[in-house]
Amino acid sequence: MKSIPALPQGKQTILEEVMRDYSDFDDTESDATRDILAEALQNSSPFGERLPEYQYSPLPNANYTRVIVLHPSVSTFEVLRCNIIFMDLENKPSTYDALSYAWGDHEVSEAIHCNGSYIGITKHLAGALRRFRSTTMPRKIWVDAVCINQNDDEEKAQHIHLMSAIYQLARCVLVYLGEPKLGQELYLLFLHELVSLVGGLAEATVDTHRNNVHIRQALKKTFGREDIALAGEFTKLSWFTRRWVIQEASLCEVAVVFFGRSIAPLEMITVALSALSNSSLVSDKLDQGAVDNLRTISYVRNHRQQSAANLSIGILDLLVNCHASKTSDPRDRLYALLPLAPDVNTSSSPDFHDQSIALRADYRKSVGDIYVEFAMECLQKSTTLDILHCAGAFRRRPISVDGLRPVFGNASIRLPSFVPDWASQRRHIPLRGIDRFKSGFCNKYPSRDLQKIPLQIPGIVLDVVRAKTPKFSDVLLFEEALQGAVHAIQLYETYLCSTHINIDDLERIGRTLIADHALTYSTILLISGARLPTEELKEEHSMAERRKLAMVAGFHAILKDYQVHDGKVSFDQMGNTSIISLAKLHYMRTLCETMQGRSFLVSDRGYIGIAPDDCVVGDTIAIPYGARTPFILRFNPTLGYGVWQIIGDCYVDGFMNGEAFQVQGLEIEDLLIS
């Protein structure tokens, strides 16, 4: 097939074998047949009136899991039947496939019969097993809902640490998207057509205009019309937004996607999504959780194929970049990503001297305890206080009167302000992991106490917020972002200009609004925050400098529009392909990414910066020792005398490289943070 990206020969052979194997199923099912089946199941008891519920036997040891042997059937109406056998992951197990699917409705409405008893399963899982059931031969499949005793929290936690082995050792991961509803049958065909036009992943990430043309062509050929709304609909299928699928699809050798009768390799889906997300026609119509998930999956799979040593994406990178993906249990916001993070040690007895973050799944602990323990562990193992950046980005709004944040709407679960609430919506992109930001770096750090609450961190109080712009929108469009830039210029003129604003002032504002290009140092194929090997990093910095020069030209062009049109937003030239217009486009994209959930500020001493949009006049700008950026802090008397709470990280122009230590009159003091 022309549109399937090339795979290594061994994997290509497995792919062809899997696609051939799973063409063997009851293909006579029509919409009418489905209705008959649904009625038959509704009018009978799938659990079997006389069958007892299946009783799980304990696993022999921590290296074992179970696998089902799914019995064949020539009829869709036949009840699902299987045997369950133990499988030792430490010794090379026999060939099996692993299922990746979205649980959907958690109601147990169907069953699979096993060894004279039954196991209750969801309707969605029953549909998957019927899809993968052979008409002629038994099949070994690992299915989480059946192979793990869901009533045993200890066994569930143990399997968190087996997941990487389970998916790596599987012959293939079967990605089940479900059965297409009316109008969805052509989704995979559209993606196939798009990839056949676009080519590979590299081509999909380069040329926005080219992608726009190919998307229109693929829509026309597949659906008979250029309906842009259809292009992103597949990302709204529940599998694409589920957090657990990131590891399931990343760690396997081969992954194949099934949507009803349609079959496609996962690589085809990731190339298509890259083209769609790098399109001015469709990018805002994609589900952000799906985009983040597939970018991460693509990144991990590519680096695993090249060299495991090059994979350097940490747990905080994953948490920040996969923020929009979903879990039903808030503890799984952390646990679902553990097998992918090389900086996390999940051993039951980690080495005391090990600098990796110790985190082991334990469903007996409360959500609040897990989040606090993880934050404290990150503080112990990091010299740059990265977890504090995440605390500001992941929090409910507003902070409650007592300075603690309720989690999941439960007033009985409270978090200190330095602990991220990983189940909340990401409010802005944290300015963490940016190597060239060194606001709080110095030759010798004073002692700090990060082992108890409140934290005691020496730092410098830089200034106080004097004024700020209205918040930029949580989801920025170009017009809204440019209007926000106009507000920033007007604020600067009001508080800092005794005469007319000049070009140097405007360049300073333009630099600040995109945090001096902080978020453009990620490569096209790399999710934000991931680290690169040294040689690749040098090349990336060179690319970033070239992009920086182009965006300066773009901002100049935007300012020219501003001056000519007297403050009114204008995009008359944004659509053409001139160099200036492309530079404007790149600048505006960076502006939208940087300023989402932030406001532009002016301080008492005349500094300018950007900060979380719920900072207020009178908030303090402080630089903790060891931090990459300044932070917005706020006194809260209910926490105790002299105790601060974190509002979030900020960019302050002229103070991102340790300059505060050279300013006369700024004294070091202990910042107590709770």
UniProtKB/TrEMBL annotation:
Q: Which residues form a coiled coil?
A: none
Q: What positions does the domain Heterokaryon incompatibility occupy?
A: 96-248
- Superkingdom of the organism of origin: Eukaryota
A Pfam family per the record: HET
Q: Which InterPro entries match?
A: HET, HetReg/Transcr_Mod
> What name does the UniProt record give this protein?
Heterokaryon incompatibility domain-containing protein
**Native source species:** Aspergillus nanangensis
- List the top taxonomic levels of the source: Eukaryota, Fungi, Dikarya, Ascomycota, Pezizomycotina
